[in-house]
Amino acid sequence: MENFEPVIVAFCCHYCAYTAADMAGSQRLTYPANVKIIRVPCSGKVDALHIVKAFEKGADGVYVAGCLEGDCHFKNGNVRAARRVESVRKYLEEIGLEGERLEMVTMSAGMGYRFAQVATEMTEKIRKMGPSPIHLALAGGASEARKAANI
Amino acid sequence: MEYIKPFKRILLVGCNECVTVCAAGGRKEVGLLASGLHMAVLKSGATIEIREHTLERQCDPEYVEELVPMIDGVEAVMSMACGCGVQEIARRFKNKPVFPALNTKFMGASERQGVWSERCQGCGDCLLGMTGGICPIARCAKQLMNGPCGGSTGGHCEIGEDTDCAWALIWERLKALGQIERYVEITPAKDWRPGGGSGPRKIIREDLAE
Ligand code: SF4
Ligand code: SF4
To answer: N- or C-end of chain B: fewer Cβ atoms within 10 A?
Structure first.
């Protein structure tokens, strides 16, 4: 794939990372447009299914961004999210995808700079890794079957 | 993966009962496995269409019947129910290959969230009334009937530190219940005929059976 622009999906907790993204905006910090943000009420709400479906639809990288440890609005959603990310990483490896395509990160609502930094680092890392084999297969026309299935 | 390799269109069927609460084969696990299989097949350079459906129960023919409108459109079925569900589908749809997506391991209970352990082996002649509610068949590695073996140490079974000795548990519990005489009583060798020793078992409720 020439001029590879990775597709990155970021599940961002409303109470921290999502607000940090806002902060990054008002601070006029730039971060790669590759990162597609999905706002969730808590990082603990991100199900294994959401992550896996993102990869299935061709995402090259996914990260879950929750609050700093001890700061979760719902007590321990971020800890649960971290454990879930760990288990989905193993599942991805089983399927044959690199587990490093999935990350768990934490930040506070005030960390606009960190938000931009994470977005940049993740994009660069995935750019180096290249497109996910699923992304390639879908781009290569293998998507018909899935389309037919209406998924 | 090997099972489904020859097929282009399969139906992945979950079950809303036991396997759902055990987080092994409910709607969510069906979704995860469908995505995983789809990705693995894509990665291998092939394509596949995986339809997802979860039945209320797979071990009752009434519910399995729901698959009728879906079955013709697929070449094979993969079931995420226990072995009973897999076999019900195979019985109903004679000309479709059916594959298990789970290994059904045991009848158990959840110790805490995410941890399950074996509790009963369906021996057909329950001893729990004698043993303070702790099963020596499912929970003693040697299925002893009259007290612990020499390997019982500090409450653990000799097979491993993380396994309680069933007989240590039974003793503690009978003591707490003031029923030590139950422990002293000698239990004769177990009759395994109701436990599968005389072939496949069947229950017929005359009042219900048609
Ligand atoms: S004694 Fe038999 S029926 Fe009772 S719990 Fe143990 S295995 Fe199950
Ligand atoms: S240590 Fe206890 S549970 Fe283990 S085999 Fe001996 S009696 Fe059974």
So the answer is: C
pLDDT tens-place values along chain A, 151 residues long: 568 999 999 999 999 999 999 999 999 999 999 999 999 999 999 999 999 999 999 999 999 999 999 999 999 999 999 999 999 999 999 999 999 999 999 999 999 999 999 999 999 999 999 999 999 999 985 444 444 444 4
Contact B35 A52 (CB under 8 A): yes
Pairing of strands B156-157, B160-164: antiparallel
B133 C-alpha to ligand 1 centroid (Å): 9
Q: Is residue A17 situated within a structural domain?
A: yes
Which of B36, B39, B49 is facing A149, going by the closest CB pair? B49
- CA A28 to ligand 1 centroid distance, Å: 68
Nearest CA among B36, B28, B37 for reference residue B4:
B37
Q: Could you say which of A49, A55, A148 has the minimum Cβ distance to residue B49?
A: A148
Please report which ligand is nearest the Cα atom of B134: 1
Closest CA to B137 of B151, B125, B149, B121: B121
Its sign, for the CA torsion B1, B7, B8, B11, is negative
Residue A67 lies in a domain: yes
ipTM above 0.95, yes or no: no
C-alpha neighbours within 13 Å on the C-beta side of residue B160: 4
| Ligand 2 contact, B141 CB (< 6 A) | yes
CA within 13 Å, CB half, B195: 12
Write out the residue range of the structural domain in which residue A137 sits: 8-149
Q: Which residue's CA lies nearest to atom 8 of ligand 2? A: B140
Listed in sequence order, the DSSP H helices in chain A are: 17-26, 48-56, 77-95, 112-129, 133-137, 143-148
Which of B134, B137, B192 for a ligand 1 pocket mutation test, highest count of atoms within 8 Å of Cβ? B137
Q: What is the CATH number of the domain that holds A53?
A: 3.40.50
Q: Quote the CA–CA distance of B81 and B100 in Å, as a whole number.
A: 8
| Record: contact B43-A144, CB cut-off 8 A | no
Looking at the 3D structure of chain A, how many domains does it have? 1
